[in-house]
Amino acid sequence: VLSSSLPRLVREFVAQNNTSQIKHVIQILSQEFALSQHPHSRKGGLIGLAACSIALGKDSGLYLKELIEPVLTCFNDADSRLRYYACEALYNIVKVARGSVLPHFNVLFDGLSKLAADPDPNVKSGSELLDRLLKDIVTESNQFDLVGFIPLLRERIYSNNQYARQFIISWILVLESVPDINLLDYLPEILDGLFQILGDNSKEIRKMCEVALGEFLKEIKKNPSSVKFAEMANILVIHCQAADDLIQLTAMCWMREFIQLAGRVMLPYSSGILTAVLPCLSYDDRKKNIKEVANVCNQSLMKLVIPEDDEMDEAKQSMTLLAEPASEESLSKPEAASSGEPPHCGRSELDVTALNQPLSFPCSSERIQVTLNLDGIVQVLDCHLHDTSIGMMTRIAVLKWLYHLYIKTPRKMFRHTDSLFPILLRTLSDESDEVILKDLEVLAEIASSPAGQTEGHGPSDSSDVRPGPVELHVPARASQLSSSGMKSLECSPSTPTMNSYFYKFMINLLKRFSSERKLLETRGAFIIRQLCLLLNAENIFHSMADILLREEDLKFASTMVHTLNTILLTSSELFQLRNQLKDLKTPESRNLFCCLYRSWCHNPVTTVSLCFLTQNYKHAYDLIQKFGDLEVTVDFLTEVDKLVQLIECPIFTYLRLQLLDVKNNPYLIKALYGLLMLLPQSSAFQLLSHRLQCVPNPELMQTADSTKPSASFKRTTASNIDYTELLQHFEKVQNKHLEARHQRAGRAEQLDRRVVL
Fold it and tell me: Which among 122, 323, 544, 610 is placed 20 to 30 Å from 668, CA to CA?
C-alpha cells in the first residue's frame, strides 16, 4: 500500500500545492510508524518516508527536517535490520534532495559517524554507500558551511573507535580536495586530533592520516602567509614528545617546516620547542630520522636569536602584538633563588578543551614585534644540565645554546649567570671531553665578556670575590707590586681585561679541584690547557697563583702547584708565556715571576724548575742548598727525578746550551750538581751525571771576548728582584708544610692507637 498509494497521494498534494497535507502525511509516517514501539511499524515508516521523499522530488528540500529527524532516530535502534533500513531510507532522501541537504549536514554527519562504527557489516555497508553519496554532494557544491561544521569535526576527531577515525579522516581528505573549501584556516582546531589518530593501531588508518597531514603540510608550504603558525606551535611541541615514533617524527618534521617558514614568529615558543627537541639529539640509530630532524630544528631555532634581542626593551613585552602561549608560562617562571633543586623539566601538557576556544593569534604575514622569552629558554637549558640521565649530544647542544645566547644576548644572559654558574662548574666533571670543551667555552665567555663588567651583574658570593674594584686584570696584591709595575700591567695589551666573573671562576675551579681530586688527576691539565687557549694564559696563572698563596689545605696547594708547573713547562699552549718568563725583560714578566714563585714555594722542586725556566740559576742554587733542611721523602725524590727528565726535554734546550758557557753560568752547573747530590743511585742520577760529564773544561772554552760579562748575567743583576726576600718566603712556606706534616702524622698515630684499643 505504502509503495503504491502513498507516492501517488503525495504527488497529488504537490500538484495542488497542499503543504499542510504533505506535512500531515510526513507527521503520521514519523510519529505513528517510524517512531512506533513495534519494529514492523518502524520498518514501514522508514519505507514510507523514503517513498514520500521520492514523490516530492525537488520539493523534498522544503520538508527535509521532518523527513530526516525520524530516520536519524532509527540509527540508534537496537535491531540491526532497522538500522539498515534507516540507512537505505536516508540514502533515498539524500539522493533526491542533493544539495538541499547541506543545511542539515551536521546532523547527517553525526549520524553517519556513529554508523561507521556499527558492529553489523550490512549496516556498515549501507552507511558507506550513504557516506559516498554525501561526499559527492559536498564536492560538487559551493554552499558547504565549513564554519558550522568545524565544531562537530573537532569533537568527533577525538573518537577512539577505529572505524569512526577512518570515517573522520576520509572526510578530511575529501574537504581538503575541494578547491572552494579552505580547511587550512581551521587546521589548528583539528591538528591535535589528527596527531592522535596517527597513533592508531591500524596501519590503514595511520597511512590515511599520514596522507592527510602530508597534504596539509604541502598546502602550508605553498601559502605560508595565511597559516596560523602560532596557534599550532604548542600542539606540535606536545606531539614532538610522543612515545610513538611515527607521531614524533611527523610532528618534528612539521616543527622543522614551521621554524623555517614562520621564522621569529616561533621564538615565543622556544622554551617548549627546546623541551621537545633537545632529548631527541641523543637518540641512537634506531631513531636516526627523528634525531636528524630534531637537529635541524635546533639549529634553525638557534639562528633566530639575533643581537637585537639583547637591545629590546623588556618593559614593552606587554605591548607586543604576539601573545605568549599559555603553556609557556609554566616553563618561563624563573627558578626561585632560595631553591637548590633543579627546575621541573617534563613534558608539556595540552589542554584539549582549550583548543575548543577561538584564538586570536596573528598570522605570519603580519608585521609584529617578537620578544625572545629568554627566561623560559634558560630555565629549560638549566633543567637539562641538571638532568644526569640525558645523553651526551643533548648536553653538548645545551652548552652550545648557552654559548650562543651569551654571544648574541650577553646583557640579558648575565642576569642568569649566578644561577647557571654552579651547574656549569659541576659539568666540568662530565665523562665526555666534548662536553667539557663546550662547558669551558661557556665559562670562558662568561669570564671575558664585557657585559659581565656591569656592577649589577657581578658575582653574588662576596666571600669568593676579593675586595677592590670590580674590574680584574691581574689578581696580585698591591703590596707585591710597585706602582709603576701595576700601571704597566693595566696598560699591557698582552693581558686583556677580564670581567668580575673571571676571578670567581678561578676560585671555584680550584675549589672543585680540591674537593674532587680525581677530577684534578684525570682532567685538571686538560681543563687548564683549554682555558689557556680560550682566555689569557698569563691571567689564569697569575690569578691561580694568587689564590693558592692563601690556600689553607697545604697538601692540595702543593699538588696544584705541581700540576700548574707541569702544564707551564710542557704544554704547547703555554709557549708564549714560557718565552715571556724566560727572559724577565719587562716589569710584567718580573711581576708574574714573583707571583708564581710565592705560590710555587708550596712545592720545593717546582720552585727550582721555575728558577731554571726563568734563568735564575744562582737563586736555584741557593734553594737547593736549603733542601738539606727539608724532609726528603720518596715523593720528593720522585719529583727531582722528573725534573731531571724535564731538563733533557726540548723545553730546556737553552739551559743545556748554556752549560757551554761555564764561566758565566757557574751557578747553573752548581745547581745541577746539587740535584745530582740529592738523587740516589738511579737512572735519573746516571742521566744527569752523564750530562754534567759533557760540560767542557773552562780553560779550553776561553775566547777573546770571554772576559766580558754575559747578557744573561746582566739580566739577572738588573732584574730588581729581591731574591733574599723570596728565599725567606720559601723557608717560611716550607716550615708551614713541615708543621702540617707533623700534625697529620700525629693525628694518624692517635687514630691507630684508637683502633688498637
Answer: 544
312-336, pLDDT tens digit by residue? 654 454 444 343 443 333 333 333 3
HEC-encoded secondary structure of 531-553: HHHHCCHHHHHHHHHHHHCCCCC
Quote the pLDDT of residue 750.
Answer: 72
Is there a domain that residue 159 lies in? no
Render 604-641 in DSSP notation, one character per residue: HHHHHHHHHHTT-HHHHHHHHHHGGGS---HHHHHHHH
Q: What is the pLDDT of residues 20-49, one digit of tens each?
A: 999 999 999 999 998 988 989 999 999 999
The domain containing residue 396 runs over which residues? 374-452
Flag whether 7 is in a domain: yes
122: domain CATH number is 1.25.10.10
CA dihedral 519, 521, 525, 530 (to 10 degrees): -20
Q: For the whole model, what pTM was predicted?
A: 0.81
- Distance, CA of 130 to CA of 75 (rounded, Å): 13
Q: Would you tell me how many other CB atoms lie within 10 Å of the CB of residue 450?
A: 10
Domain final residue pick, 142, 174, 194:
142
Say if CB 680 and CB 637 are below 8 A apart.
Answer: yes
Residue 353, domain member (yes or no): no
For the chain, which residues score pLDDT lower than 70? 1-4, 312-369, 454-497, 699-719, 752-757
- What is the identity of the amino acid at 612? F
> Could you give the CA distance from residue 591 to residue 43 in angstroms, rounded to a whole number?
108
Which of the listed residues 392, 420, 452 is the one where a domain comes to its end?
452
CA 680, 682, 686, 692 torsion-angle sign: negative
